[in-house]
Amino acid sequence: MLDQSIKSLLVCPPQRIARFFFTLTMKENTNTVLLGNHLVLVPYAAKHVPKYHEWMSDADLRDLTASEPLSLEEEYEMQKTWQKDEDKLTFIILSRHPKDGLPILDGHTPGIHISPEDPRVSSLQMVGDVNLFFKGDRLAVAHETTANEDDEFEVEIEIMIAEKRFRRKGFALESLLLLLTYAAGQWSPFVPPDLEGFDSIPSHLPLRPYLNYIREAQSSRSLIKIVTPSRLVSRISDSNEPSIRLFEKLGFRVVKQVEVFHEVEMRWCEAPRSS
Ligand SMILES: CC(C)(COP(=O)(O)OP(=O)(O)OC[C@H]1O[C@@H](n2cnc3c(N)ncnc32)[C@H](O)[C@@H]1OP(=O)(O)O)[C@@H](O)C(=O)NCCC(=O)NCCS
User: Among 80, 51, 55, 50, which Cα is nearest to 67's?
Assistant: First the structure.
């Protein structure tokens, strides 16, 4: 299979060759576990589909996430597509607990690698998902050539804490910080001034060492080249106050109202933040 692809490259234009090598590096989250203070991010796999499908049978959640109802079979198909598609980076959020046996990072932790199949990980409860979607001419960005204006590259972020009892505990904020640190190779643009709030949650150590570990040991070269803060965008229903406040906290601002879809577009902005 690979041999055939390489053979076909010999007769390919340079753009296609670039796409081939870029494709090879895009699904690099396949074996990635991002360890956090309260949660762990793992790639969306077939074993997660039944719970995901149960979540998406809730009409309110579908509404909030602009999702279509799917049968279980369609959900499995969708998961397969998401797993392969180079334009998506999808993670499931699992809740940690004090006796999960996973490392607690304190800033002095030597190299760790945790597999998504590790029983300490697979036994954790699913609480939601967090995703990046790459839209537009990624090749132009990766190769620093000028993109067609209609095909400007952007990275759309989506998050859902589906399990209601896990909301308002900092899960969404922490998930987004882990994912953005992994994909953008930095966390400082997104950390709210009141990050110290994480320290006040009993029985958990602060998030900072986890973000540092991801930045230093796990962020991927091909992603950080294209996922820069100014290319991040979130599209949210204009009545979804919790989500708008959440993205504001990470430094995003409403830059556009799309009346026809009752939606706001939020982009990360360098302007100073209040909290
Ligand atoms: C929006 C959502 C992801 C927030 O998840 P969460 O884990 O409860 O959020 P966090 O606890 O991390 O909250 C972080 C910040 O977001 C804001 N926020 C979250 N929920 C809020 C609410 N109900 N009302 C107002 N602000 C809220 C606050 O600024 C909060 O910081 P604070 O607790 O210091 O005030 C969650 O409510 C959800 O999944 N909703 C359904 C799906 C959805 O709307 N997804 C977004 C589509 S892009």
Answer: 55
